[in-house]
């Protein structure tokens, strides 16, 4: 299928997520970008686009005009024409959106077995993502880092010493186990999946947030950092995206660089 | 389809999870029990069953003899005959296992739209489950509660005051939005799904861990506690399960009753 045909047959996907940061919306953006699929990033593309983000998570909402349930939190994805009775479908929860898009955009493996392994590995990468968030917000999500800094120092130490090597070691082993087909480039099978793009983004965020820790650990995980990371980064759609102004820099979102939380 | 026929056509599902506690394995048990589907709970049913649990998450494992990737952590599900080339399939990550079984056991809604809403709501209930775990282990998963009690007091206060009402309010609204079809008994559509069983178990755990907080809040969420909770608990398969010795009591797992973390 030509790129033009593909673009024409895709529905007008609309990502509803906070503007200006990568955040959890980035996992959704990457599957669109990796497959050259057109999408609207509503809050980044129009000044009042954030209203649509706020509307889908409105704490008075029980269902929207198209019969969709409310979203607990962004990201959400709106897909005109794909909901009940031909109305708009709204999905929330990153893994649910990824599994929906994965099947449609060719990022969910060669068969149902691979599709479920891909979902499992993406969930594990997202668990790692959540644990990174908790390093700077260990006791209260809605309060300032400065108000929980003492706890954050403890949490970050445990994360660096115990949790991070456990996750990285796991993904190194998954890549090793799939080496025959995946050549160290793919977690499952012989082609790119949303598990790969999801893990890649978490690793890129870790390099930003904990540069010293990651540098010190890179050689412990040679497949992950020597092959996988640069391979996913070099995928055509990803490579083009990363030099575009659509890729937002890390700042004060999930991945934050507080030198005191990094390896000392 | 008669129950006998159904039982005969299901593969011999094998749950791999820690023995003696409900834990994350409980979400998987509940979908089997709600549908009267036979399964083996390996570590609870045989003395050395725990070896199979340890084997699937062995930190040297890159892939098993049937070509399955390692599990990051239990629960895992082994399904003989459903893997690559007719070998055993092993899946890990609770939401991935639930989405696999949901489709096969009739707990994933009436169509693909409902299947994705169900996955999204189950993921949100599991996020709540994780936040409960973090109330007693805010800074180090592998250390004792007693070594992080000061931080736990702060985390639990934030959980009770901010996070818990946000989650409960969300599910109350989802039930309200689906009232026409679901009558307050189901989160999505007009029949039981794995989102319902998953949320129900988290609520049952919350009642154990934070009895005062839950009692004080019940009337704020009349559909959730007045209709949904007792309705799911009364589903035939669930009801039978809860009085069996297969239902393990809450103890020192995810849901723990520390009076000092409850409402004072």
Outline the structure in words.
Two copies of one chain form a homodimer. With 264 residues, the first copy, chain A, is mainly alpha-helical. Helices cover 53% and strands 6% of the residues of chain A. In chain A, strand 1 (13-16), helix 2 (25-34) and strand 2 (39-41) form a beta-alpha-beta unit. Chain A is globular, with a radius of gyration of 19 Å. The N and C termini of chain A lie far apart (52 Å). Chains A and B meet through strand 4, helix 5, helix 6 and helix 7 of A and strand 4, helix 5, helix 6 and helix 7 of B.
Shape-level CATH architecture of the largest domain in chain A: Up-down Bundle
* Strands ordered across the widest β-sheet of chain A: 2-1-3-4
For the termini of chain A, the CA-CA separation is 52 Å
Structural class of chain A: mainly alpha
| Rg from Cα of chain A | 19 Å
Tally of DSSP helical segments of chain A: 12
Largest interface (CB within 8 Å) is between: A-B, 53 and 54 residues
Strand content of chain A is: 5-15%
Assembly classification: homodimer
Kindly give the count of domains of chain A.
2
Largest sheet of chain A, described in full? 4 strands, mixed
């Amino acid at each position: 299928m030509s790129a033009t045909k593909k673009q024409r047959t895709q529905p007008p996907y609309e990502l509803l997520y906070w503007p200006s940061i990568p955040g959890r919306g980035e996992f959704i953006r990457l599957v669109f970008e990796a497959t050259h699929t057109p999408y609207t990033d509503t809050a980044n593309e129009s000044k009042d686009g954030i209203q649509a983000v706020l509307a889908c998570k409105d704490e008075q909402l029980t269902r929207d005009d198209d019969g969709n349930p409310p979203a607990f939190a962004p990201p959400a994805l709106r897909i005109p024409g794909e909901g009940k009775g031909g109305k708009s479908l709204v999905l929330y929860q990153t893994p649910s959106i990824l599994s929906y898009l994965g099947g449609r955009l060719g990022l969910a493996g060669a068969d149902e077995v691979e599709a479920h392994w891909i979902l499992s590995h993406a969930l594990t990468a997202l668990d790692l993502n959540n644990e990174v968030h908790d390093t700077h917000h260990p006791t209260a999500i809605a309060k300032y880092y400065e108000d929980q800094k003492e706890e954050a120092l403890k949490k970050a130490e445990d994360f660096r010493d115990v949790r991070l090597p456990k996750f990285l070691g796991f993904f190194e082993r998954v890549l090793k186990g799939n080496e025959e087909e995946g050549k160290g480039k793919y977690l499952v099978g012989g082609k790119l999946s949303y598990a790969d793009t999801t893990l890649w983004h978490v690793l890129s965020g870790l390099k930003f947030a904990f540069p010293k820790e990651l540098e010190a650990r890179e050689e412990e995980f040679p497949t992950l950092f020597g092959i996988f990371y640069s391979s996913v980064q070099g995928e055509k759609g990803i490579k083009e995206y990363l030099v575009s102004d659509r890729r937002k820099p890390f700042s004060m979102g999930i991945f934050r660089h507080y030198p005191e939380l990094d390896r000392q």
